[in-house]
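Lab manual, section 2.4: Encoding a predicted structure.

Procedure: take the sequence of the chain (422 residues), apply the prediction step described in section 2.3, and record the output as structure tokens. A sample record is shown.
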Amino acid sequence: MAPVLSRSLVSSASFISLSSSIRHPNNTVFNLRSVFLPQNNGLRKGFSCSGLKWKPEKRIDKISVRCEAAVAEQEAADTSGEKFEYQAEVSRLLDLIVHSLYSHKEVFLRELVSNASDALDKLRFLSVTEPSLLGDAGDLEIRIRSDLDNGTITVTDTGIGMTKEELVDCLGTIAQSGTSKFLKALKENKDAGADNGLIGQFGVGFYSAFLVAEKVVVSTKSPKSDKQYVWESEAESSSYVIKEVTDPEKMLRRGTEITLYLKEDDKYEFSDAVRIQGLVKNYSQFVAFPIYTWVEKSRTVEGEKKKTKKTKTEKYWDWELANETKPIWMRSAKEVEKDEYQEFYKKTFNEFLDPLAYTHFTTEGEVEFRSVLYIPGMAPLNNEEVINPKTKNIRLYVKRVFISDDFDGELFIQGFNTLFWA
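Recorded output:
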């Protein structure tokens, strides 16, 4: 309990002593009115001011007012939350991610969307035996909203969410299969200097948010708990804070909302709505759940002026589905029609001609994958694309998420062969 503070406003006493009236030498009585005290007998029940609690006490012809700072201290403790220290391996990992691992910062969005997709998958699986987990919290989906004015990105999913204990376990520590294997793989690839997809492989992708964010705030609500919690940490910090959400306007029905407060150098690039939608289409186009991005649109409206109709174009913001194309390679080749292969090819590679030929096959063994190989309807116009030792025509997907298109040319004939690998 904090000590009780007393200050004198009109005397040097150890308590606040305010005379209820002042008698002038000519016997005129003046009633005391102070801006510090409530009027209309407000002192009878006490009052609060500036977070401090004031209590009245009568002393013959005076009114004493005592200030108890303990109340203010308690309120401050309630809003500051509980502080935790990162596990040592997490601190090492954060340092690696931010300072040395990735040359492409944009992968942070791929990782956050993949985590959101995993949370939705988990909820869908658990709801088979526990339908009550779904409740009335809406469809299973992901929404991404960027705010250029405030320099933020918010990724929201309606998945399983987390309890307070799960926040500590998932964001403050690393699973047994995580750090040791991750650091070992990083060491093995150090000489090659490759900018690979290790984060996605070892399930620690959340921390990639600090590639672009100076602060990350995670608000989450699990259907298994009545309470909602907020996890908050800053870049370069060795600790994080968890506190309960009590503001009704900030409550989630279910799921997780991650807000990134972008660094000054990354603010204008990654809070741009067009840039965000492009990253979703590039990395997460084939995620199983709908992904909506907040984008600026235009529409034509009609107005009447002097008995004539005039049209004008106005701008507005709305949600737009960013992942319409379905991954046909995940289906059996017997189930996919020819026009579906052709439409998929044109949408995915921005081609206007139908492919000259294609094949859809599955390989099983030590390495298993499904793939679709296309031969374009027209050969490359630039000969450099044919003889280039590195090809961008082979794209590797893991769990429907784009990982890399950086492969050595000897894998396939260069220039006109395109492979989807899952």
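Check your result against the sample. The chain has ten helices and 22 strands.
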